[in-house]
Amino acid sequence: MTSDNPALPGARRLRADRARQVADVLRRQVLGGAYTAGPLPHEDVLAEEFDASRNTVREALDLLRGEGLVRRVPGSGTIVVADKVPHGLNRLQGLAETLHEHGEVVNEVRALGPVRAPGPVARRLGLPDGSEVVYVERLRRLNGLPLSLDLTYLAPDIGAGLDAADLAHTDVFRLIEEAAGQPLGGADITLEAVSADAHSATVLEVPRGSALLMLERLTTLADGRPVDLEYVRFRGDRITMQGRLLRDTP
Q1: pTM recorded for the entire structure
Q2: How many other CB atoms are found less than 10 A from the CB of residue 130?
Q3: Which of 34, 118, 140, 143 could be disulfide-bonded to 148 (CB atoms 3.0-4.6 Å)?
Q4: What are 218's strand-pairing partners?
């Protein structure tokens, strides 16, 4: 008898709770490539592995189907259809550098030019209120498919020499280093889930309200000067964030 049977003492969790637990573990296996060579194991096998009922496993697979990660094929079982790519969080790299093993990143420059910086943006870049910055908006595609919408504010001296041709074929990080004459030093990032607004949904070719991963990144030069503030909206169905954290010893 399985552990999610409500008749067992101390096991009153709803099946939906157990299904989420199973789905969380299976999701990582799916995205990690554990089942690329064939279908997922049969429901009976998964039920035994997770010490769960078949109904729980079915609900877990339904969750993954709803996320577009797997698909049920009559006569073949449940197969992986996910095309998510891993985006590392351990190093400061441009998108093309990060995803070079997964295909070609192409940038469509949708806007480029000087704008009056909103107060919070100016202050994050260490500029006086009312300063001009260079604003860049790019749609980034991986192997032809929309992946992210990047809104970038650059310090005026850094962005002044940029043109659309450079930005279409080169990561902005490399262009910043060339303009500054020094390497980038680091970045402060915030990652959160947001819903696709009408503009983002249209550009990224997703339904309005779809889940997006929003990366806010303030990048500094090696000397500590902030020069690049970005708001990057990733399609949640096409990318997964990965990293390794180390615990400081007291």
Answers
A1: 0.77
A2: 9
A3: 140
A4: 188, 229
